[in-house]
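Researcher: Next entry in the queue.
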Amino acid sequence: MIAAMSEHLSLPTTLHRENPSALLEAHFGARPAAHAEAQAHNPALRVEAIGFVRYRGDWLGVLVTPWRLDLLLLAGGGDLWGDIPAGQRRYLDLYGATLPFVAVDEPRLGPYQYSSLVDQVGRIPDMAAAREIALDALHSYLPPQPPPVSPPIAPAESVSRRGFFRRLAGKH
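Model: Structure for this entry, 172 residues:
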């Protein structure tokens, strides 16, 4: 019975070591037009992964498609991911709220979990508005990210007056 149950669990068989944005865009961008037509869709939107960052060791970001706008969680080896059966829901405490996430297991992509951000994508006027919704959600549900660390700038070498004139004369 355990073997039968494990076939339906949303297990992180694929740990995403690197940012999954390109993988998600390729996967969802390759879906046939018939899939989009089967669901309510918005032709003003296109597939775009927005703001994927590591949060507590796993990947969290927003995926915009012509048929959905969702907050996605992908396993990265951290403590945010939780194994649940595909199709089941769990509640996840994020920085700004507790959100419901539904498990999915796509054959080519592997398991992921999503929380719907917009019920009707037909009301989103364009990609700029979709990006704004995505960024607002990320700012609401993730703690502020520290600024990227820049390498320290080497202090300027102090040059004596004699050294200055030697360099000016072309004598190093």
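Model: The two ends are 80 Å apart (CA to CA).
Researcher: Noted, moving on.
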